[in-house]
């Protein structure tokens, strides 16, 4: 009779544990499901780093103008109005003396002038092209910012997917430990088990609960971090998709070709060399003459209280041409040209250095990527075996034909296998993301 009661009770407790597990899963599903596409879209729209880089692009676009390059004339309007009050004395040639006390005088000048540098050794054309290259450099920097941000979103998203899988494993372990505590307590109360069995079950349950709480805390902090990257309310709760969708078809040769064409760091290095070349052109232009033309209209009026003429006015056009030719400036021209050539050489060295760095990063990351793909297949098989072993162990435990120690071993084996499997998937996905980011071709 007692044996039948215990069998029925164990069945009921096991079913109740499963119901609690399903209920917890249902509560998790009630949260917002955030897809990877939605997360990336929100980040591209709201991320502060992307907005700041976009503002830099706008400034670079505004700077690309012929006026900023010095190709257009400068037109200025001026007006000057000066007034005087003074005591004046004048002695004429015939000896006559004229005096004025507190005499008022004024001078009024106004006009419009144009000054235009029509030739400066072609420096203005090099400067205009340099502004265009700086705009392209800003676009390369924006691309790098976007790649980095999208990579961070994807890495954090799949970190949450990894932690969700581990949460389920810890939750399963907690449910089983709760069942063991309930069973051990009832067995102890009817005299079928020692107090030690109940205490061991309680310790295991407390341990599993602690692990679950720590995992929940880690999961919540990662949610906050992803919300921060997306620049939305950090207190927003959500769940993510569990599917990692690892791309296992990447090849090193294809990635290397893409990196040379699309990697933002490589692009920026090439653009920096071109900027240095254009700067050298501007320096060499200082050897050539500079020619300016100017014209304008002026009006002036002078009024005085004493003199041969108490009022004079004038107005009219003025125009002219000026030219200057550098002859000697203390060898500074030669020094500037030498420095400009050194900067070009440094820019070329940076290109070679970045190409080598990208090649090394790809080779190292690709090797790690291949290893992680192998680990995913291995840990997937281990996790499946551990799950089967746990199911068999629980069935035997329900029938009373297995010890609690063996149940605990099956529990831990399943949890550890699940954690290793999710870690392997996450690391493989991180490797994929890193490779595509280096190649400048990060796709969802």
UniProtKB/TrEMBL annotation:
PANTHER family: OUTER MEMBRANE PROTEIN TOLC
Signal peptide start-end: 1-30
Gene3D superfamilies xrefs: Outer membrane efflux proteins (OEP)
Domain of life the protein comes from: Bacteria
Localization in the cell: Cell outer membrane
Family stated for the protein in its record: Belongs to the outer membrane factor (OMF) (TC 1.B.17) family.
Keywords tagged on the record: Cell outer membrane, Membrane, Signal, Transmembrane, Transmembrane beta strand, Transport
Statement: the UniProt record of this protein carries the keyword Transport: yes
Descriptive protein name: TolC family protein
Phylogenetic placement of the source organism: Bacteria, Pseudomonadati, Bacteroidota, Cytophagia, Cytophagales
């Amino acid at each position: 009779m007692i044996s039948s009661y215990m069998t029925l009770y164990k069945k009921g407790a096991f079913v109740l544990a499963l119901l609690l597990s399903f209920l917890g899963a249902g509560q998790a599903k009630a949260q917002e499901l955030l897809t990877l596409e939605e997360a990336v879209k929100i980040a591209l729209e709201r991320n502060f780093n992307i907005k700041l880089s976009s503002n830099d692009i706008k400034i670079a676009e505004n700077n690309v103008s012929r006026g900023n390059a010095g190709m257009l004339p400068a037109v200025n309007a001026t007006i000057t109005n000066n007034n005087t009050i003074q005591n004046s004395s004048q002695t004429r040639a015939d000896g006559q003396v004229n005096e004025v006390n507190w005499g008022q005088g004024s001078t009024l000048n106004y006009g419009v002038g144009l000054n235009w540098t029509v030739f400066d050794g072609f420096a203005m054309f090099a400067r205009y092209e340099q502004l265009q290259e700086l705009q392209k450099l800003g676009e390369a920097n924006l691309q790098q910012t976007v790649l980095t941000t999208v990579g961070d979103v994807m890495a954090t998203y799949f970190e949450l997917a990894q932690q969700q899988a581990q949460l389920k494993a810890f939750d399963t372990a907690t449910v089983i430990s709760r069942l063991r505590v309930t069973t051990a307590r009832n067995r102890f109360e009817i005299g079928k088990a020692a107090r030690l069995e109940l205490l061991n079950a309680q310790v295991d349950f407390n341990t599993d609960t602690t692990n679950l709480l720590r995992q929940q805390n880690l999961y919540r902090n990662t949610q906050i971090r992803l919300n921060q990257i997306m620049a939305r309310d950090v207190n927003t709760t959500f769940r993510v998709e569990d599917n990692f969708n690892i791309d296992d078809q990447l090849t090193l040769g294809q990635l290397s070709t893409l990196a040379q064409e699309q990697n933002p760091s490589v692009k920026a290095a090439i653009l920096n060399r071109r900027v240095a070349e254009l700067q050298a052109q501007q320096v060499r232009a200082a050897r050539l003459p500079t020619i300016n033309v100017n014209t304008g209209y002026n009006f002036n009026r002078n009024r005085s209280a004493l003199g041969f003429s108490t009022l004079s006015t004038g107005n009219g056009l003025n125009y002219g041409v000026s030219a200057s030719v550098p002859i000697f400036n203390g060898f500074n021209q030669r020094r500037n040209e030498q420095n400009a050539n050194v900067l070009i050489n440094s820019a070329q060295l940076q290109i070679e250095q970045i190409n080598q760095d990208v090649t090394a990063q790809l080779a190292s990351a690709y090797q790690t990527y291949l290893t992680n793909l192998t680990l995913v297949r291995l840990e997937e098989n281990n996790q499946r075996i551990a799950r089967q072993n746990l199911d068999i162990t629980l069935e035997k435990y329900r029938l009373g034909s297995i010890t609690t120690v063996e149940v605990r071993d099956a529990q831990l084996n399943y949890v550890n296998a699940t954690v290793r499997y999710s870690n392997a998937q996450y690391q493989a996905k991180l490797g994929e993301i890193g490779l595509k980011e280096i190649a400048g071709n990060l796709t969802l």
